[in-house]
Amino acid sequence: xxxxxxxxxxxxxxxxxxxxxxxxxxxxxxxxxxxxxxxxxxxxxxxxxxxxxxxxxxxxxxxxxxxxxxxxxxxxxxxxxxxxxxxxxxxxxxxxxxxxxxxxxxxxxxxxxxxxxxxxxxxxxxxxxxxxxxxxxxxxxxxxxxxxxxxxx
Length: 153
Description:
The protein is an alpha+beta fold. Helix content is 33%, strand content 34%.
């Protein structure tokens, strides 16, 4: 039996734009053609965000491309999808989101060892422009330091 390749999609822009405070792993409700598209690698999390509707959390604007071998029952590419979380976690995060400046962003979509799609969501706070510049400066300094250390080792 052939080993299944690891399927993982990360929203790298989120690390640049936000300060991560907490993360959770959530299940995501998908239709048959959506999971096939995920396995095919047709996913983009860039503009995605999470909202609360009543006592449920939904993820909006996740792009899961159309399944090429699908028929008339193919899925809509950017439809809202329900997230599966425990009630305690939902209530806790709903209270935090009501506070000023907090939001929930999908950070990583992957298939676990059983082939089930999971979405890692993060409670985040927006970075200011000067915070972004400091992050870039720190990363550049680390790269330069690594180069210097490599010369002497």
